[in-house]
Amino acid sequence: MLRIAIFASGNGTNAENIISYFQNSNLARVVLVLSNNKNAKVLKRAKHLNVSVLYFSRNELYASSKLITLLQNQADLLVLAGFMLRIPAVLIQEFPNKIINIHPALLPKYGGKGMYGMHVHNAVKENNEKETGISIHYVNEKYDEGAIIFQKKVPISPTDSPEQIATKIHKLEYKYFPIVIENLLNTDFKIDTQDH
Ligand code: GAR
What are the distances in angstroms from CA 72 to CA 68, 121, 184, 194, 195? Predict the structure, then answer.
């Protein structure tokens, strides 16, 4: 059984959706949800679904090896689902092509530092975009610049508010993120599976 650890900073509806999706899978399970925010709703959601949770400080992420050792022992794939901090280089080196992120826009548009959540949808609206979408990509040391694994577009009507755009994006995320994770585990992780 492959082990997924999810990093999330806030609400955690994607985390919850991924946990549920893999609950009866023969391939993988979400074993841990980690957050840099003690009060993040995602921690409650995970506990409710009987998934272990871990809060960590900035210092534990950037200046200690404790978290890395723990992840090496407990996880095969790291999934960022609404995680707002940069992943340190040392963690990326320990999990090459095994950290993925979802971004609520069509990268490389509307990516980079400060572009998260409603900031993205507000910018999309301000620029009168005709379409937006989701991007699932590998995580490298630069915000939102890792190789893209999957993208899906959705049309925007001129009357859509940023909140309505957010709803459209969440719908796409719920539909595709678990499937993309599953496909990735079925392909890139095939050899690893034999070790577990
Ligand atoms: C999601 O839309 C995700 O794509 C976005 O945050 C939201 C989290 O929602 N991520 C980013 O903006 C990362 N730059 P959730 O907490 O309900 O899953």
Answer: 6, 35, 19, 17, 14
